[in-house]
Write a sequence for this structure.
């Protein structure tokens, strides 16, 4: 591809952003997020049952739909192939749109454990 943009499902995405991890602490829009302290709603616990996922993601969607950062959040999650629920979009919906997570399945438990530990540290 000769330019700096990629196109998936009618949406453009910076190739640089797709291939470069962005430090989440530098994202100003995150400070306005309504999900602060609610990692339990936005990231699946290990071996989550499908029915529980539907209930959890429904609650997460309710927060996202009231959040001022939805557009930026959704774009960030797509560009960084994030796990979890971001910008009113589930991991499955993001994958269907062409932005599947790049984290190998075997690494997901470790990612979930690290995020849970970070959430616990933040809460204490
Ligand atoms: S759109 Fe949803 S996931 Fe994104 S910052 Fe807002 S509440 Fe959090």
């Amino acid at each position: 591809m000769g330019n700096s943009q990629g196109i998936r499902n009618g949406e453009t995405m910076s190739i640089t952003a797709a291939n470069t991890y962005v430090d989440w602490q530098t994202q100003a829009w995150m400070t306005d997020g309504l999900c602060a302290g609610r990692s339990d709603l936005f990231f699946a616990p290990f071996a989550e049952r499908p029915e529980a996922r539907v209930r959890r993601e429904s609650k997460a969607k309710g927060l996202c739909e009231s959040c001022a950062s939805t557009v930026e959040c959704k774009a960030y999650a797509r560009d960084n192939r994030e796990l979890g629920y971001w910008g009113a979009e589930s991991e499955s919906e993001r994958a269907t749109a062409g932005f599947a997570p790049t984290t190998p399945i075997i690494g997901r438990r470790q990612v979930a454990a690290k995020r849970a530990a970070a959430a616990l540290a933040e809460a204490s």
In short: The first strand starts at residue 5 and ends at 8. Residues 81 and 101 are 4 Å apart (CA to CA). Residues 1-19 have pLDDT under 50 and may be disordered.
